[in-house]
Amino acid sequence: MYPIDLSGKTGIIFGVANQRSIAWSIAEILHEAGAKIALAYQNERVRGNVEALTGSWDDALLIECDAAEDSNVAAAFERVGEQFGGLNIIVHSIAFANREDLGGRFVDTGRDGFRVALDISAYTLLPLARYGAPLMAAAGGSIVTLTFQASTRAFPGYNIMGTAKAALENEVRQLAADLGEEKVRVNAISAGPLDTLSSRAIGRYRDMKRIAAERSPMRRNITHEEVAKTALFLCSDLSSGITGEIIHVDAGYNIMGI
Length: 258
Ligand code: NAD
What we know:
The chain is globular, with a radius of gyration of 17 Å. The protein contains nine helices and seven strands. The chain has a seven-stranded parallel sheet, with helices on both faces. The longest helix is centred in the middle third of the chain and has 20 residues, at about 160-180. It is of the alpha/beta class. The chain has one domain (about 10-250): NAD(P)-binding Rossmann-like Domain (Rossmann fold). It binds nicotinamide-adenine-dinucleotide. Nicotinamide-adenine-dinucleotide binds next to α1, β5 and α7.
């Protein structure tokens, strides 16, 4: 338990698929801090995992929401509005690209694969903010998304997801500018490599992880908990003056030249 009290706060977290999901680490830490949490999961396939993970919570609100359709996102926030009355926290931890586009040469990425990766991994932040921000009107709120350093550097194998992360980070700045006056802050955590369902699908993921540990200033990989702690900070009043930022949680890897 960390000394940040989120009791009386409410949040919705998108992107828990299993116990290794970054979204789950964030859900756990926010829940432990006293926030009331809704988990929006993609589909029936992951529902059992999410139910099992939240089994010991007495107040879990679970909502199925395939973010590929804006109407599903609108319905999820309608439910949150009914149940919670208002909202303080939104975590967007959603990404997808076709497996064939996560290896080989970037130059071979097809139009359809490009569209899918950008749609799910970048566009989806917009409807979350569009339908979520009005629920934050009373007390203001914090929106947090997850990105990766391939937004600004070439990571062979990460390919089209790098393009999606570049778009996502640009959205963070534009949304922060849009929503600042409504007291809604929007930030991203740029995390180092972590073993999850999604990262395992990336060609050369093992190289990415090994090299990050070898070359980062701290000479190690990061942990899920370190990302979650940063999310806790961004969702709390401790970060009240921060918006539109990309915060690296990568043991410093991004600062290195050689
Ligand atoms: P994960 O596979 O556990 O999470 C990805 C989630 O996206 C899953 O829960 C999946 O159900 C959800 N999703 C995919 N398509 C969706 C859709 N149409 N509607 C709703 N949900 C959908 O993997 P993760 O590594 O925890 O990924 C979470 C975020 O963290 C992603 O944005 C990822 O790019 C980012 N990230 C991961 C790493 C890493 O090394 N694992 C590093 C930096 C950033």
